[in-house]
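R.M. (postdoc): so does anyone remember the format we settled on? I'll just put the structure tokens first.
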């Protein structure tokens, strides 16, 4: 099973990105003192409530706001 994980373009399990060599989750820290949103909660109508602002946005805006956390 570990070979199938390593063969993925981006090894992930349950939404967590894994280090290709050790297959352990890659942890990233979030600076909570920085301005801006750092997460979101899905809503039933296909929109997202941003955290911590509480703004309700569509998927494109959610991706734009969270792009800085994806490397």
């Amino acid at each position: 099973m570990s070979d199938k994980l390593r063969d993925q373009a981006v090894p992930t399990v349950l939404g967590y990105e894994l280090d290709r060599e050790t297959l352990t989750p890659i942890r990233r820290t979030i600076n909570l003192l920085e301005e801006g949103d750092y997460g979101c909660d899905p809503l039933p109508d296909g929109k997202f409530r941003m955290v911590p602002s509480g703004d309700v946005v569509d998927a494109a805006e959610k991706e734009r706001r969270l792009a800085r956390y994806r490397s």
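R.M.: ...and that's the designed sequence above, right after the tokens. Also worth knowing: Helices lie at 2-7, 59-66. The chain has two helices and five strands.
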